Amino acid sequence: MAMLDDSNVFGNILVIDDDQEVCGTMKSLLTRMLLHCETVSTLRGGLEKLRSQNFDVVFLDVRLPDGNGLDALGEIKALEDSPEVIILTGQGDPDGAELAIQGGVWDYLVKPTPIKQTMLSVQRALKYREEKRAESPVVAMNLDNMIGYSSGMHRIFDLMAQSARSLSATLITGETGTGKELTARTIHENSGRRTGRFVVLDCASLTETLVESTLFGHRRGAFTGADKDRTGLIKMADGGTLFLDEIGELPLNVQKSFLRVLQEKRFRPVGSLQEETSDFRLIAATNRNLENRVHEGKFREDLLFRLKTIAIELPPLRERIEDIKPLSLHHITRLCEQYKVPVKGFGSDFFEVLGSYRWPGNVRELFNVLERAFVASGQEKTLYAMHLPQDIRIKVAKATLGEAREDGAAEGPQSPLEQEARSAAAGLESLMTGDLPDLRMFKSLMEKQYLQTLIERCDGDLNQILRISGLSRSHYYALLKKSGLSAK
């Protein structure tokens, strides 16, 4: 077979796949491409190799004997000089593809993959890696105020570093309380404009007239109450960063004027005949879906295109549960320093309750709850679940004990499986009369029982299992691994 033009690129490749025929085929192909290739058949073996050796590209199967390959993406991407990952799976799964791309994989291939496609994918990944290494060294990001160890936050930090190195407009989206302003400020402080001002405007807090005057400034006498000249925030951000929070609330007529400013960096203060210039860098944020606002006619599509040159979507706290403990340690330590008291410890039940709550207010709500617990603990040296606000503990208890009962109350005829779930929920009261297991064990027991019953009643039929449970394929296999179960 003829080799492609750039096939003489040397690189180390690892194939993690339990199909020996696939491993043999991949090793033969990659060797002919003058690449060094090693193969392993388990996820654990693959992770051990990745920790002990440097690889440029990893071909990763999804269904492995000891786990789901997608679950290991975070750990792989967190490695120093992490390899590019190409998912190689026997079954196409749209949810799995979405998770893989969100996890930062290079490509997602479905077996059997044409040889040419496989070669192109690995060659492009190696070329990208070579160009990335050839770039000038970048100063490490100062993330002192950003706490996050989850794979989702690693991706956010990469995007923040990309934004800090550029002058392009950046759009930060996410639910209320996810830390959009902190993210914007961190980007500014790591950028070449760190010595300039970081100017903030909350677009939702001002009327239409005031937004225009606040942004562009005005001249004395321009309108009633304008008794003196005022410099606008665009001019104040000259040489620095302008941060527009809740930009989805910016009035339509102001959007049109601001789009011109973004394109030309020129503007006219209200009531002035003279144009002024400002060399500012824009970072915007919103908790709204701007695409929906565009369809509703409330946001300009051309402005949206200009804003999202770099797009950063902050994950909600409920999707980064592993970050709750480090966030809590950081905030409680800061509170102890502020109140000049010894650093407090934590009971095991404290983090169990925090990890079981949904956090609709995200990190902002977490910090508020932690401060309330800190105050409630007084001079005590350890924080326990009992110090947490009652409303949080009640919601966690209801979510744990009432979920199955609420599901069973749905209208319409119930399937045998639904009837069994309702019966199990009714039996919880008798379980509560004896010695209580801890919360984590209780949740694990109930989850495992549900999965066992589900597999038995569906006789291992995967399609039926996914339809009844509402789980995606990748989530289902992740739960099997967690519960120590195997599919029929």
UniProtKB/TrEMBL annotation:
Example of a GO biological process term: regulation of DNA-templated transcription
Keyword ATP-binding: yes
Keywords (A to Z) from UniProt: ATP-binding, DNA-binding, Nucleotide-binding, Phosphoprotein, Transcription, Transcription regulation
The name this protein goes by in its record: Two-component system, NtrC family, response regulator
Annotated Sigma-54 factor interaction domain residues: 146-375
One GO MF term attached to the UniProt entry: ATP binding
Residue span, Response regulatory domain: 12-126
SUPFAM superfamilies per the UniProt record, alphabetical: CheY-like, Homeodomain-like, P-loop containing nucleoside triphosphate hydrolases
Residues that bear 4-aspartylphosphate: D61
